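Hi support team,

I've been running sequence recovery on a batch of backbones for a student project. Most finish fine, but this one hangs at about 90% for roughly twenty minutes before it completes. I'm not sure whether the input is malformed or the queue is just slow. I've pasted the structure tokens below so you can try to reproduce it. Let me know if you need the job ID as well.

Thanks,
M.K.
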């Protein structure tokens, strides 16, 4: 799990094919303790994917920052409220970014099998065939 203080963006990623770069996925929840770290871990295992988890709250383990928004190609938020917070705080930086609301409530523990299943079902369609 990568949540923690980061001086620089350090995604988790598996090797990609030569000449192919990873797609950068940012997963956002409130505290960066359960849902987004689970997503980070699950999708870090996918080839051609780099992942980071962050939270919208100021006391999140890893708060969302402009650097993370800049790095991400696709931003997955767990709830509509997370999307609203990002738009309010990073509106201009979000231009041209794919922002996806997953609709996953804060009802699961870290790596709970039902959470993993929901994440895979809702994130995979956005990755394309080459990353799945």
């Amino acid at each position: 799990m990568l949540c923690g203080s980061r001086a620089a963006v350090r995604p988790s990623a598996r090797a990609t094919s030569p000449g192919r770069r990873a797609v950068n996925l940012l997963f956002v929840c409130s505290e960066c303790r359960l849902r987004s770290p689970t997503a980070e871990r699950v999708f870090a295992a996918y080839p051609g994917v780099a992942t980071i988890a962050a939270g919208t709250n100021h006391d999140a383990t890893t708060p969302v920052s402009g650097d993370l928004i800049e790095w991400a190609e696709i931003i997955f938020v767990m709830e509509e409220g997370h999307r609203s917070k990002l738009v309010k705080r990073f509106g201009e930086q979000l231009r041209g970014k794919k922002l996806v609301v997953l609709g996953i409530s804060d009802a699961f523990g870290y790596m709970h099998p039902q959470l993993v299943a929901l994440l895979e079902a809702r994130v995979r369609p956005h990755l394309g065939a080459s990353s799945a």
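--
Follow-up from support: It reproduced on our side and the slowdown came from queue contention, not your input. DSSP finds four helices and five strands in the chain. No action needed from you.
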